[in-house]
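Figure 6 in text form: structure in, sequence out.
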């Protein structure tokens, strides 16, 4: 059963993002763009407001899906705080000096962690499921704060330090009010709230709020070489979010059963076929539909049906508004903010 959401006062407009998983390269450009811009404090060395996971896989932090969210009556569900070493993975130190000082005549020293880590971000990158070459599969899943309609992190905070902006629904932490109790970390089932142990405050994705206020796309979206991210308001019928989420219904939330109504949506991956004897493609999907349902719920089946139908139309040379939008020939159309403003790329 989907958990009921609490009656949180909602802003009149909600900024949202759609990510097309069929175009994600797993290059981590979005991760680096976010980290270089925002995670410069030493207390957030382990934190990734944006990360790209390989699915199937354990994710970051490890097995984040098992805790937090809401109960069936809509109350906040107490979860767990991931362990720094086994959950997030402590920041590694590298043998930089040994590499710099190594003598090539005696054998080049290669860059590697100075210790022997057993877990960290993207530890299981590109590790798929199934058997090669017949059923093996994997895809990339970029993740950031969902800026939920009913955020559990906000309701869990006894200090009232987490709030939704009235103008666009972005969820922020007032660090002047935060006392570092970490109830927000426990409550977020997506585990996208991080704790800065040096300043004793919670930190999280702010949807690049200072950039958005200037009509500039968030760093993760702006730097993405695959053009897979779309940003805009959910109620704008001329914008990409409304078309993908409400008109075509091909963009769906991650784990809707958590009951938080996320405002980050995903176009699910279209599966390649299984390979039969002699290398022949079979009429069976390589990525199990049940696995995709475990991530995106029952809406994933109809979404894939629409995607495949529109893709076939395009192959036949017929027009398809959906394919034109997802291919993103004009990247300016990926981003549409208030007052019809669009970022112009040069």
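Output sequence:
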């Amino acid at each position: 059963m989907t958990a009921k959401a609490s009656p949180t006062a909602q802003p009149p407009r909600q900024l949202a993002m759609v990510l097309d998983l069929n175009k994600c390269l797993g290059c981590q450009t979005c991760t680096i763009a976010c980290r270089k811009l925002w995670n410069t404090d030493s207390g957030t060395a382990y934190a990734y407001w944006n990360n790209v996971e390989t699915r199937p896989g354990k994710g970051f932090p490890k097995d984040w899906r098992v805790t937090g969210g809401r109960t069936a009556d809509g109350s906040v569900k107490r979860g767990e705080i991931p362990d720094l070493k086994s959950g997030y993975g402590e920041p590694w130190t590298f043998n930089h000096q040994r590499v710099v000082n190594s003598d090539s005549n005696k054998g080049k020293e290669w860059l590697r962690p100075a210790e022997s880590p057993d877990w960290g971000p993207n530890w299981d990158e590109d590790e798929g499921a199934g058997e090669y070459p017949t059923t093996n599969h994997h895809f990339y899943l970029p993740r950031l704060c969902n800026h939920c309609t009913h955020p559990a992190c906000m309701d869990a905070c006894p200090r009232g330090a987490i709030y939704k902006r009235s103008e666009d629904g972005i969820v922020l932490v007032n660090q002047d009010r935060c006392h570092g109790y970490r109830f927000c970390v426990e409550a977020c089932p997506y585990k996208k709230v991080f704790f800065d142990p040096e300043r004793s405050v919670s930190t999280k994705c702010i949807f690049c709020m200072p950039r958005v206020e200037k009509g500039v796309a968030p760093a993760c979206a702006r730097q993405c070489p695959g053009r897979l991210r779309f940003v805009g308001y959910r109620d704008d019928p001329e914008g990409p979010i409304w078309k993908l989420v409400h008109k075509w219904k091909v963009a769906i939330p991650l784990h809707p059963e958590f009951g938080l109504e996320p405002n980050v949506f995903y176009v699910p991956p279209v599966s390649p076929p299984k390979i039969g004897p002699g290398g022949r493609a079979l009429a069976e999907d390589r990525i199990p539909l049940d696995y995709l349902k475990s991530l995106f719920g029952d809406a994933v089946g109809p979404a894939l049906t629409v995607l495949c139908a529109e893709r076939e139309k395009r192959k036949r040379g017929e027009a398809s508004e959906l394919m034109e939008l997802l291919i993103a020939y004009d990247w300016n159309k990926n981003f549409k903010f208030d007052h019809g403003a669009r970022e112009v790329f040069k």
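Caption detail: The chain has one domain: 15-90+120-340.
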